[in-house]
């Protein structure tokens, strides 16, 4: 009675041996890669959604500081015009492990980022500028697609492990 409903004992033993080959280090590296992939996708979305200021040429101001801030470590770096890709920046971020929770902190160091995100009073304090919610909306979109992205990555990972 080696065949039980389409599964052979030999096939199950082979699967068990393959699963035993998956080392803890490989799993941890895979989990970190998943976290960084989601962070890169979040950054790509928030960067596209971040407005760029338009200034007259005579002002000497350059737009895009806030947008560049998503992949900068300091406000000065964002102002410099130096650009980094969302993926490269996400790969450089530290993953913090709190029990079963992984946290990657994404910060925009430009001091007015929160005012653009959530809104602010006008300079004369008589009006209100609506927030753009570029991070809030992007986070919601990532939460919606995360299960499908992770499922695809898990299938690929297991497929590679079981070859």
Roughly how much helix do the residues carry, as a percent range? 55-70%
Largest sheet report = 2 strands, antiparallel
Query: Could you say which overall geometry the principal axes of the C-alpha atoms support?
Result: elongated
**How many domains would you count in the coordinates?**
1
Radius of gyration: 23 Å
Total strands: the figure is 6
Report the sheet-strand fraction. 5-15%
- Termini separation comes to 27 Å
H/I helix tally: 7
Poorly predicted spans: none
Mean pLDDT: 88
Structural class: mainly alpha
The side-by-side strand order for the widest beta sheet comes to 1-2
Element-by-element helix/strand order: EEHHHHHEEHEEH
Account of the protein in words:
The protein has 163 residues and is mainly alpha-helical. It has one domain. Helices cover 55% and strands 11% of the residues. The chain has seven helices and six strands; from the N terminus they run E-E-H-H-H-H-H-E-E-H-E-E-H. The strands form three sheets. A two-stranded antiparallel ribbon has the order 1-2. Strands 3-4 form a two-stranded antiparallel ribbon. A two-stranded antiparallel ribbon has the order 5-6. Helix 2 packs antiparallel against helix 7. It is elongated and about 75 Å long. The chain starts with a strand and ends with a helix.
């Amino acid at each position: 009675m080696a065949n039980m409903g389409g599964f052979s004992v030999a096939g199950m033993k082979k699967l068990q041996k393959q699963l035993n080959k998956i080392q803890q280090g490989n799993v941890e590296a895979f989990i970190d890669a998943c976290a960084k992939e989601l962070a890169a996708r979040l950054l790509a979305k928030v960067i596209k959604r971040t407005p760029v200021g338009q200034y007259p040429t005579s002002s000497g101001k350059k737009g895009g500081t806030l947008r560049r801030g998503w992949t900068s470590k300091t406000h000065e770096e964002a102002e410099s015009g130096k650009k980094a890709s969302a993926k490269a920046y996400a790969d450089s971020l530290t993953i913090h492990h709190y029990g079963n929770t992984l946290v990657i902190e994404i910060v925009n160091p430009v001091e007015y980022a929160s005012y653009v995100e959530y809104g602010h009073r006008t300079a004369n304090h008589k009006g209100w500028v609506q927030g753009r919610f570029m991070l809030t909306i992007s986070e919601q979109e990532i939460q919606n697609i995360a299960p499908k992205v992770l499922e695809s990555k898990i299938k690929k990972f297991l497929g590679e492990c079981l070859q």
